[in-house]
Amino acid sequence: MKLKICGIQDTNILEYVCEAGVDFAGFILANDSPRKISNDFLSSLETFNFHGTTPVFIFVNPSVDEVKRITTNIENPILQFHGEEEDSFCQQFNHPFWKTIRVKDSQSLKAVNNFPSANALLLETFSGDAYGGTGKVFDWSLLKNISLQSKFILAGGINSKNIKEAAYLNPWCIDVNSGVESSLAHKDRNLIAQIIKILKNE
Asked: Which of 9, 56, 120, 151 could form a disulfide with 78 if both were Cys (CB 3.0 to 4.6 A apart)?
């Protein structure tokens, strides 16, 4: 089972995540997020040695130019679209992409059929006033009644207390963000280490 640590803004944390062998490191480019990376940090990623970790860049309703800035300057990124983007928009960049489905109820999950080009679907908790990073878990029992043909990534409120339960749902990848923060937007390497240890013992 793969692991993504999302919302990284700090080089020291990024180095730790890569050295620990985490599969994916997520970087948020959405203007309204407290975890949005700075231009200086983004520039530093152009020459950063990710080792075996794959960078994932998270957009919310971006312009084409915003996405191309990443695909032009970063080697082998995954693009994650978190807004109202349609499949045709996401696939035009000829890069692997993940599409976020914000889960409110069983009806929300019907949207998984709208993104046949996605390399994976990320299931996140719906919020009326935020596109993500709510720290809240959606009703995971909804997943028992559907068949997901694509790889699915489980996100939303996952931490060291519930990650075992998350793993039992057998997602392709688990996405952790606020669950490894000591305060808003500040990643804690000890909390990251806990998550890694629990997953490795699964």
From this structure: 56
Query: In CATH, what number is assigned to the domain containing residue 35?
Result: 3.20.20.70
Confidence of residue 164 (pLDDT cuts 50, 70, 90): very high
Structural domains in the chain (count)? 1
pTM: 0.95
Q: Residue 169 above 80 pLDDT?
A: yes
In the block, residue with structure tokens 């130019």: 65
Q: CA separation (Å) from 50 to 76, 88, 110?
A: 11, 29, 35
What DSSP character marks residue 36?
A: B
Mean pLDDT (whole number) for 78-93 = 97
Token couple for 111: 């949207």
Rounded to whole angstroms, how far apart are CA atoms 25 and 36? 14
What tokens does 89 get?
Answer: 């928009």
Q: Which residue has the tokens 């890694």?
A: 196
DSSP one-letter string for 118-146: -SEEEEEE--SS-SS-------GGGGGG-
Range of the domain at 27: 2-200
